[in-house]
Automatic annotation (TrEMBL):
InterPro entries: DUF1771, Smr_dom, Smr_dom_sf, Smr_domain_protein. SMART domains: DUF1771 (SM01162). It comes from the Eukaryota. Residues 95-130 form the Smr domain. Pfam families: DUF1771. This is Smr domain-containing protein. Gene3D superfamilies: 3.30.1370.110.
């Protein structure tokens, strides 16, 4: 059995690791968000200058960066979830949503509750929000 101090130190270590993981993936999200914005701004300028072909090309590039940004956000959510929720923790009726943005947290929580309901093993579930 861990002492209070040991539990507190372990929680702090996990929190720091979660933050590192979040920042690592967030850099990719931010990069694509910035590039998306730049492409859309250039697209607007090209359109205003009458170059519709260039505007379309830049708009398509912006959309692709938007897609890549969303893909990076999903990878971030998956990595954070897997780090905070080893399979033994989930099977014991506990889910930890720390670090997840709302839409990903809601999706994971709904799946967790539905899976538990289908399995019928858990009378209580512990949902840790972040």
């Amino acid at each position: 059995e861990m002492t209070y101090e040991e539990k507190k130190a372990e929680e702090e270590r996990i929190h720091e690791e979660t933050d590192k993981l979040y920042q690592q993936y967030q850099a990719d999200v931010d990069k694509h968000a910035k590039l998306r914005g730049e492409c859309f701004e250039k697209s607007k300028a090209a359109f205003a200058n009458g170059d519709k072909g260039e505007a379309k090309k830049l708009s398509d590039q912006g959309k692709e960066h938007g897609r890549l940004m969303e893909e990076a956000r999903k990878k971030q959510a998956d990595a954070l979830f897997e780090f905070r929720n080893p399979s033994d923790k989930l099977s014991q009726g506990t889910i930890d949503l720390h670090g997840l943005q709302l839409e990903f947290a809601m999706d994971r929580m709904k799946s967790f509750v539905e899976d538990a309901r289908k399995a019928g093993k858990q009378k209580e579930l512990l949902i840790i929000t972040g």
